[in-house]
Specification:
about 475 residues; alpha+beta; 3 domains; 6-stranded mixed sheet; 4-stranded antiparallel sheet; about 30% strand
């Protein structure tokens, strides 16, 4: 009986989920192929359920194909020959389906619909027996081999062309494609002295973020973007100032809802190491220069910005990257220089410490001078490994003590351990405003925000070596 035959072919732990007769294409090339009626059976083995390390609730919440192994058995009634093919896991099932039929996994398609598509579109039968060592089909009377066509499953870090016209006609199969995002910018850049290949992705929005964006666009149309983009420095009455403050708050809410998140992937070709960092929306707003930045204006309009707007933002984000050695990683990891980054540990419980004894080298200690130290760390400046110490100097040209505390100058002492030389760089208030969203360092609220602002200034430093002129010495007398 057919049922008895199926039970005889079923291995321990397997279940027959498909048993039908289908016309299979014989031959790998469609032009020279012909159809041959065969009986196809699919046996499924639940590997995840048998694995005690996998929780039972996780097995039921996943897709039905997750944690399963499939064995395809083809039988040719004309020659009484059979062949077997295997789908090892859920990843293999996705590769067999191909990029064009991934919707069958996410929809409520049954096993019968799914494997019927596979056998009609992705299954080929070849006369002969396949030799894995020689990678050829050896002729054999009344024997055949079945082959399941597969599309390569790329990882989430796959780099594709920016222009859609350059993409291949066949869509690529990418793992976690909905979390991967869209590539908006790619460039080589030197980060903390190391040359990296940087790729910037615009991350897709969640349903909640899409709803916030929709509400913000409606709000923008209601109050009018022209009034939001006006110059708020003009003098006006109390009513005008109150209206301007309301517009500013609405404009900020619109940007927070419309500006996407970005992910930067960095690859070091010298060490073949890869690192990535995610810019949340608050970090994008801060690194771009605040809500009044011209880079953010295209995102406040009631339409999606073009690719050039994303490229401008991506260039700014790449300028705010640094490499920091972290525990558990052999290579330095990329970090974001912004006030909300909790991954970079604070150097001390308080940002500003008092003057005290130091065990620094004599050259560096002699160049310390006046001021209170606010940061000290070893980092790479340009092409040199250096110890950077930052000191807080009140502006001596201020008229009174109150203004002297407000107007501050930062002194950066860069000491090279290789050459035992040090150099000082003074950064006044105007330069601090230029690199920190139009705010001096000590006007930023919170010690963490001030420290991130100082680190951002350290990231902008550059150092190099110059050859000193050595006088030529000559010997007098004969030699």
């Amino acid at each position: 009986k057919p049922r008895d035959l199926v039970s005889q072919l079923t291995l321990p732990g397997e279940t027959c989920i498909y048993n039908k007769g289908i016309k299979v294409k014989m031959g790998l090339e469609d032009l020279f192929s012909y159809t041959c009626p065969m009986n196809l059976k699919v046996f499924m083995k639940d590997a995840a359920k048998q694995d005690a390390r996998v929780p039972a609730d996780e097995v039921h919440t996943k897709h039905w194909g997750w944690g399963k192994e499939f064995r395809v058995l083809a039988y040719n009634p004309h020659t009484s020959a059979s062949a077997v093919a295997h789908i090892e896991n859920y990843k293999g099932l996705r590769e067999v389906l191909g990029a064009a039929a991934q919707r069958l996994l996410t929809s409520h398609a049954t096993e019968e619909v799914l494997f019927t598509y596979i056998f009609h579109k992705r299954l080929r039968a070849v006369e002969g027996v396949y030799n894995k060592e020689l990678e050829v089909y050896e002729p054999s009377p009344d024997r055949f081999t079945i082959q399941l066509l597969r599309d390569r499953l790329f990882g989430m870090f796959k780099v594709t062309p920016l222009v859609p016209e350059k993409l291949d006609a066949t869509p690529a199969l990418i793992e976690d494609e909905e979390k991967r995002g869209r590539i908006v910018y790619r460039c080589p850049k030197r980060v903390s002295g190391k040359l990296l290949q940087l790729v910037v992705f615009e991350l897709p929005r969640t349903e909640e973020q899409k709803e916030r964006q929709r509400v913000s666009i409606l709000e923008a149309r209601t109050i009018g973007l022209a009034s939001l983009q006006q110059d708020n420095d003009e003098d006006g009455g109390a009513a005008d100032k109150q209206e301007s403050a309301a517009h500013n708050a609405a404009y900020e809410r619109i940007l927070e809802a419309c500006v996407p998140e970005y992910r930067v992937l960095g690859y070091n070709p010298k060490t073949q190491s890869r690192s990535q960092v995610i810019f949340p929306t608050p970090a994008v707003l801060e690194c771009a220069g605040g809500v009044r930045s011209p880079f953010l204006r295209p995102f406040s309009e009631a339409k999606d910005p073009d690719l050039d707007a994303h490229k401008d933002i991506a260039r700014v984000l790449c300028d705010n990257l640094t490499l920091i050695k972290t525990r558990g990683h052999d290579e330095p990891q990329m970090m974001v220089l912004w006030s909300g980054n909790k991954d970079i540990p604070l150097l001390a419980s308080s940002l500003i410490d008092s003057d005290g004894a130091t065990n620094r080298p004599v050259v560096e200690r002699n160049k310390r001078g006046a001021g209170r130290r606010v940061l000290r760390e070893g980092m790479r400046i340009g092409s040199l490994d250096a110890i950077v110490s930052v000191f807080w100097l009140p502006n001596r040209q201020a008229l009174n003590e109150e203004d002297r505390e407000k107007l501050t100058v930062l002194r950066f002492n860069v000491y090279s351990t290789k050459y035992s030389e040090a150099a000082d760089v003074f950064v006044d208030e105007a330069a601090q405003r230029a690199f920190n969203a139009n705010k001096p360092v000590f006007e930023i609220s919170g010690a963490e925000g001030q420290e991130m602002a100082i680190r951002r200034l350290c990231h902008c430093l550059d150092a190099w070596t110059e050859q000193d002129e050595v006088p030529v010495k000559t010997k007098s007398g004969g030699a």
